[in-house]
Specification:
Urease accessory protein UreF, 10 helices, mainly alpha, 0% strand
Length: 221
């Protein structure tokens, strides 16, 4: 069955412009509400200072949700039916808050993107929704992966700037230092199979679980 076509009455701009808008802080997915367990990790003393935050986010990219999301996004981009991948994405969430994080952001992304670009995009986990939208609009996969990973990292760094706390310049230095890693992982994920989706970021997963009962919380995860 062919993919449904986007709204033919609207000319698509440069793909880079669309992708830049999707992963801008202004895109209404509510990413600022989530710390991905970082809030607990900072309170527990597991993440301290600029170097500690940089290492934490790099590990999430390499071994945690960053890598898994990238593989899911790429697999969805290649798939005719996103439903099995949507179910897999939900099953991979290691805690209730992480499930909320991916489903709430994915639902918000799907609603906005469907309304703006005239595509059929039901609510799904965030990386699956992005992969499906990129396929339907004919956007290039590699830049979509790179910017998705960069946005993922930048959001956690932004939470760290508030929580550690750090200055904005230090936060931007961390984000800049992580750009080569985002590009490297995007290149790997572009052709990765689902057999390569595994990771091991156990401290981050535990932090996400412990955050559920943290006494004082600014973030939803």
């Amino acid at each position: 069955m062919a993919d449904p076509a986007p709204d033919a009455t609207r000319a698509l701009p440069d793909p880079a412009q669309i992708l830049a808008s999707w992963f801008s802080p202004a895109y209404p997915v509510g990413a600022y509400s989530y710390s991905h367990g970082l809030e607990w990790a900072v309170e527990a003393g597991e993440v301290m200072g600029r170097a500690g935050l940089a290492d934490w986010v790099a590990d999430l990219l390499r071994h945690g949700a960053g890598w898994s999301d990238a593989v899911l996004l790429a697999a969805t981009f290649r798939a005719g039916d996103p439903a099995p991948l949507a179910a897999l994405a939900e099953a991979l969430a290691p805690s209730s808050e992480r499930l909320l994080e991916t489903m709430a952001q994915g639902g918000a992304f799907a609603r906005t993107t469907a309304a703006v670009w005239g595509i059929a995009l039901p609510p799904m986990a965030y990386p699956v929704a992005v992969g499906r939208a990129a396929r339907l609009l004919g956007l290039p996969l590699r830049p979509a992966l790179t910017l998705y990973l960069q946005g993922f990292a930048a959001n956690i760094v932004s939470a760290g700037v508030r929580l550690v706390p750090l200055g904005q310049t230090d936060g931007q230095r961390i984000t800049a230092d992580l750009m080569p890693l985002c590009a490297e992982l995007a290149a790997r994920a572009e052709g990765a199979s689902l057999d390569e989706i595994g990771g091991s970021a156990l401290r981050a997963d535990l932090a996400a679980m412990l955050h559920e009962t943290q006494y004082t919380r600014l973030y939803r995860s």
